[in-house]
Amino acid sequence: MLPLLLLSHIALSFAAPKSQCDLTKVSIFNGSYTVSDGGNVGSRVLYSCPKGSYPFPESSRECLPNGRWTEPEHVFMCRGIVCAPQMTFENGNFPKKRKYYLGETLNFKCSAGFERLGPETRTCQENGRWSGTTTTCENFSGYCPNPGIPAGAAKTGTSYGVNDKVHYRCQSGLFLIGSAERQCMENKKWSGAEPFCKERQKYDSPEEVTESFSLSIAETIAGAKPFCKAEDSGCETDLRKGQPRNLFILLDASANAGEEKFNAAKETAEILIQKVSGYDIRWRFAVISYALEAKTIVNINDDDSGEAQAVIKRLKNFQYKEHGRKHGTNSRGAFEKVYNMLFANANQQRDPLGLLWTQNIIVFMANGRYNLGGDPQVEIKRMRELLLSIKGQNNPDIYSFGLGHDVSLDELNDLATKIDGERRVFHVQGIDDLKRAFNNITEGIEASDACGMTTESTNDARQKFPWIAKINVTHPDGTVQQMGGSIISQNFILTVAHSLHNNNPQSISVTVGRNVALKVRNVYRHPKYNPTGKKDKNIAQSFDYDLALIELEQKLVFSSTVRPICLPCTRGASRALRKIGATCKDHENALFPEDEELIRALFISGKNRDVSEEMNVFIKQGRKREDCLCDVKNLSTFKDVADIKDVTDKFLCTGGMQPVEEPQICKGDAGGPLIIQRKGRYIQVGVISWGTTNSCQAFIRNKVPAGSRDFHADVLHSMDWIGEVTKDELSLVK
Ligand SMILES: *[C@@H]1O[C@H](CO)[C@@H](O)[C@H](O)[C@H]1NC(C)=O
Ligand SMILES: *[C@@H]1O[C@H](CO)[C@@H](O)[C@H](O)[C@H]1NC(C)=O
Ligand SMILES: *[C@@H]1O[C@H](CO)[C@@H](O)[C@H](O)[C@H]1NC(C)=O
Ligand SMILES: *[C@@H]1O[C@H](CO)[C@@H](O)[C@H](O)[C@H]1NC(C)=O
Ligand SMILES: *[C@@H]1O[C@H](CO)[C@@H](O)[C@H](O)[C@H]1NC(C)=O
After folding, report:
1. Domain housing 284
2. Looking at ligand 2, which atom is closest to the CA of residue 140?
3. pTM exceeds 0.90, yes or no
């Protein structure tokens, strides 16, 4: 036996490299294909399938130097596009099927005593994902909301009290991306990121990567959350300058990458560095490549690590062969190098706390699974300890990119940072797709688009709600009225019109962040605001278009405590909603889905003028909105009004006792923003205007009386006016 084995071994190693692959072996069932370069080594087969199906297991293959096509053992076929099946659903039901094909829908019904949150109907889309968000049925008895069961997943754990945990796993054959365990936190939110069950072969398209990655990294860059105490003056630094951002890029140079692919990965890193360095942000770059060993191409502590062109030049000069023996994938070695750089940096800084102020972003690219050096998690844990990562601070912030079919999705997911509503794990077919994706990321990186961002982990209300403005209006009789407002741009505060009886800027003072009273240049009330305009309809005082803009004498300097909130139909909101190129109508559909009767929203309580508090309410739509109108009709003030819609039409309605008792607004809250939170960002949809009851005394909230409803001036449909007044400060989308 032995000699034979040896013989065949020798025969193999002496076989001349083939120059062609067999063209009869590339066919695909029910689909078609094209071959580039006539089947020579390096040529590619591209498959296409009829609408509603996709090429399985891959959409292309390549002729290798051994004369074989990649994936030789697979029969290629067109498979129908399916979405992950909903397996179970809590406190409700849905028509259960084993498979859901493109265009098919899921319909959710909640059991008696439960309210549906999220869409009633979800549709299986072209990309194999369900439209809309995860639907839940709520009875509002938990401290945290029901975290839901994503399609393809099963959940264990049904208690939603503080510190309670739920666990998820995906149906066999699907990979869990996101958090397998989530915990109900004190801020009434779940830790980590909602899981998503991914089919291995379903790659992210370059467009999907561009969209999610550019927006997430833009957020990290623009909204870098410094670690600092309230009294540190450094906290007030301009968003664009301030502390440097460190970007570590980890490239896979192992044998299964190959020289050509490694060079493509180098180019991808160059593109990333080039793109992010185009902005007025202080960067430091590091590039590490890893195979059997990890090699530092650029160290964060090098003198030229902040100069993009110098970094790119050194990257270009690095040769694949410098790795020598390439068998093995030591990703832990790469993460260890990152740790060492951070450690050295901490020691060489005159101000050791400086490191804590620095946002560290790691972009990890992998072709295969790690097989040497051990689990890279160990190094990440050491980094977190070094950076004294505050809970929720996400430093280091790790993105992982898997290339091709050899990667371990579980490993990539373990490494990546988990942030709700954002993606840090990407799986693309090959490096070329990643290159294409990175080429387009610039769109998303603009510090001025950093609207509606907060530092969740802080107790400082000014950092938690940095867009809050406090307004004092001195009336002619000398009385001072307090009201709320929101920062929407460097020069403008949005508030209500009804307390600004005269347009005298001297009678108004505004405070934001830690600032003392700011001077006002001008006041603009909505031109259609006309309190006496509906007397003929027996409405003594109409609040329609109760909106005003206050123009400040001096531009605000944005920082972690002074920052604008997003407004719908602006470029900033497109980013916040992760919808590049979205129209105003798209924003409306995303914020107010038609089939949802209860839309989670919040306002900031002025109960105590220093310790602001988040108050959770629901905007009522559809049938639920009718109940709001009934409560208005009952008011004696409106007993002679024929059509109550004349009173309520221009407003969003919150409050009431059903399905859950909601906190009511108090007098001094007027002018403050009504906010919808999406994907970790805050978008203002209303301005608090009026309510049916007023039982608060000097911001002390009493028991909510029956029939209590609150009304908020609609912002989305007033954006034309807001855009006109603020001129080019907000980039409106049509
Ligand atoms: C594929 O083609 C075969 C006949 O060649 C047909 O029976 C089958 O239904 C087709 N499958 C799909 C998914 O179109
Ligand atoms: C709410 O629903 C849960 C089941 O999810 C149940 O255990 C609880 O008793 C219900 N609470 C109320 C107040 O109905
Ligand atoms: C990049 O942007 C161009 C122009 O906007 C677009 O045509 C192309 O599809 C984008 N590519 C990706 C991968 O997003
Ligand atoms: C607003 O009025 C309150 C109460 O009168 C006062 O404490 C506060 O200092 C005033 N703020 C400004 C900016 O004038
Ligand atoms: C409103 O009025 C209707 C009848 O006019 C009554 O049934 C209902 O209880 C009233 N609601 C409140 C909150 O007073």
Report:
1. 206-227+240-442
2. 1
3. no
